[in-house]
Design brief:
The chain is mainly alpha-helical and about 300 residues long. It has 16 helices and no strands. The chain has helices at about 5-25, 30-50, 55-60, 60-80, 90-95, 95-110, 115-140, 145-170, 175-200, 200-205, 210-220, 225-230, 240-245, 245-260, 270-275, 280-295. Helix 8 (about 145-170) packs across helix 9, helix 9 packs antiparallel against helix 14 (about 245-260) and helix 13 packs across helix 14 (about 245-260).
Length: about 300
Amino acid sequence: MSIELAKTFKFLRHAAGMEDERWFYSEVYWPERAFSSAVFVAYPLRRFYGLGQPEIIGSGTIRVLSAYSSLIQAYDRYSDTATILPSLTEIKENLLLDQMAQEVIRQVDGTGLDRGQKRDLIRMVNRSRYTLYQIEQQYSGRQLSSSEAFEWKKATGGTLLSSCVAIFNRCLSIGVEGASVEQSAFWYGANIQLLDDTVDVGSDILAGRQTPVISLLKEKGEYRGVVDYTSNGRRYSFGALRNLAPQTVSLVEQKRREYLDQVPPLFTLDGYQEICDPSLTPIIFRLYSAASRRVSH
């Protein structure tokens, strides 16, 4: 068996494990998309730290992560419908977002942390929200070159996943190694964001969104071919996209490899390591695309 084939089977085993994990946590009711995001964070970390599922359930970690994911997703939907980036005042005065922010606080209050730890966790959540807002403020609302778009999505994807890992670490009182795992999560998040932008290129084009992939397609003269291919709603494989836009795909995969190489060797996370490996992109693309369709409906 080749090394790459062995790695592919390893990923499939982890993918099956993540699915089994969802059933264990199914007593936690939450919208599917937020719940799946929480399990996606918890599964590799549980394995890395050697934690049991009952310990994670009892700590309230899945509930806090689900509430945080719901809040971030609601903000994304809110900002996507706005013609310009909403101000901080508008965000604070939005009733739905305020209710979801209060739900995060309620779930943090339900953990077994002491009062000071709860206060620190809520502050960390608020800092991550403000950091994500600052990133959007810096890059949104103007045409970006591909290099600018790469920096934008690296910051967004990396900050979001590392924030989720930080929430996990604090809910379970992980020690000093947690900081290094959060560093790994930043680079995994940046990599996965590019994978997501590649998988969603057709819908992003239709919605008029700006991503590194779309910026590259335009710069390399490959945009029209992808538009024509996806305009009738056809699904596409990684191979089809690579044939339509070889320069774009090559550069995106090169960037994903650069991000993966930044992960400290002692703090790699099984599951994420395979998802982020460009040598496995054809099969990961198909599985990730199917998973994205499932949780978006």
